[in-house]
Amino acid sequence: MLIGENIMLALNGLLANKMRAILTMLGIIIGISSVIAIMSVGNSISSSVTSSMEDMGVNNITLGVSQKSTSETATADGRVFMGFSRGSTMDDGDYITDEMLDAMKEEFVDSVSEVLLSESAGSGTAEDGSLTANVTLTGVNAAYLENEDLTLISGRTLTETDQANAKRVVLVSDKLADSLFDGNYDVAVGSEVQVYVSNRYYSYAIVGVYEYEDSSFTTESDNDVYTSLYMPLETARNQNHSTVGYSQLTIVTASGVDSASLCTELENWFNNSYYRNNDSFEISASSMESMVSSMTDMLSTVSIAISVIAGISLLVGGIGVMNIMLVSITERTREIGTRKALGATNGSIRLQFITESIVICLLGGFIGIVLGLILAAVATNALGYAAKLSVGGIVFSVTFSILIGVFFGYYPANKAAKMNPIEALRYE
Predict the structure, then answer these.
(1) pLDDT digits (tens, 9 = 90+) for 156-183
(2) Per-domain boundaries in the chain
(3) Which pLDDT score is estimated for 84?
(4) Contact between residue 357 and residue 321 where contact means Cβ atoms under 8 Å apart
């Protein structure tokens, strides 16, 4: 019997017992829809997180001063643990200085594109009478500001003169201008803004307004969001009475440079050149590229693990298919006997029932795919992410549906194929 005829027989059998067919496919539908939904939502979250991290600069390297391990402790089973000098306070000689950075630029002239410097001046509240806005004060150098890729709405950016003279000028977000100046950005530019930080008021002149972009990780309301207030680096350092150096900075690698390898080279160079005799601190470096890769791998692993758990229902569905096929064979015993008496081979009988099992699983799989995509779209929309179709999940679902049909359909089909035609014809 041709495969096409077997498929038509299977469909006619399902139509003749609609409710039984739906209940049989229910386990497959639930399993497939769960796997598709979970993998699609996982892809959406992973894509969004990766995109957000890449926007921060996938070629960036974070370089910072960290506490150095000071001792080794061996346990009874031979394992070695490193001890740390907890509570150590950084002295002037522990910071990264401008002289170190100049030497680094000369040493890695072909690998380092820019050095991004910043200094936190605290978080506080910008005030104008009863009007307020939450802000984070950050001092930045010119390279840092360029790397932020801000969209300027009104006014100007920070200039070299502002940086050199440590002027008390700032760039503010449109959210701050909306809160304090009723959205009139032209009025905001040139105005003074009072910021209350650490029990003290600071006054700055607004020179520009930039467009604030919501982070995909932000869950706060608009009133609670802290936006950055950018000022010249030296202005923030003077405000903090900081003159010794930097505890952390960001390096932008040149085009085509392997940031992971450069991380190791920078760590070794700094530690060998400047921190070899420092008992408490050393330089550590991490690349955004490795962080993005680690984050993607972690999200993928979690998504796959949850999908495997959801896929258990597929096995339950497969057992249901086997059960209904055994029932179907019992009901059609005389039909099987008649076909074998008319010359049907064991192979054709076996193929007929395996085909019927595959058709049941495939129909359940296709319904599950549609339901899974709908669930994924609803879930990603509710979470605020862009829906991302899991092609791999769909291919896996279709393939797995066929395998379930073959695996759980083979035993009933083989049982039907081995029936004695005389006994089958006598079956009541």
Answers:
(1) 999 999 999 999 999 999 999 999 999 9
(2) 3-53+295-426, 118-239
(3) 44
(4) yes
> Please, what's the b/e burial string for 119-155 (b: 16 or more CB within 10 A of its CB; e: otherwise)?
bebbbbebeeeeebbbbebbbbbbebbebbebeebbb
Task: Report how far residue 142's alpha carbon sits from residue 293's, in angstroms, rounded to the nearest whole number.
Answer: 29
Spatial separation of the C-alpha atoms in residues 109 and 111, rounded to whole Å = 6
3-class SS at 299? helix
Q: Which residue has the tokens 């791998």?
A: 297
SS3 57: coil
d(CA 385, CA 52): 12
| Of residues 197 and 323, more confidently modeled | 197
Give the pLDDT band of residue 406 (cuts 50, 70, 90): confident
Q: What is the pLDDT of residues 3-35, one digit of tens each?
A: 777 777 777 767 777 787 788 788 788 888 887
Element (H, E) at 123: strand 118-128
Calpha distance 369→376 (Å, rounded): 10
Q: Which residues pair with 120 in a beta bridge?
A: 138
DSSP 129-157: TTEEEEEEEEEE-HHHHHHHT--EEEE--
For residue 101, give every residue at least 6 positions away whose Cβ sits within 8 Å of its Cβ, in sequence order, or none: 115, 249
Mean pLDDT over residues 374-395, rounded? 77
Q: How far apart are CA 141 and CA 390, in angstroms?
A: 42
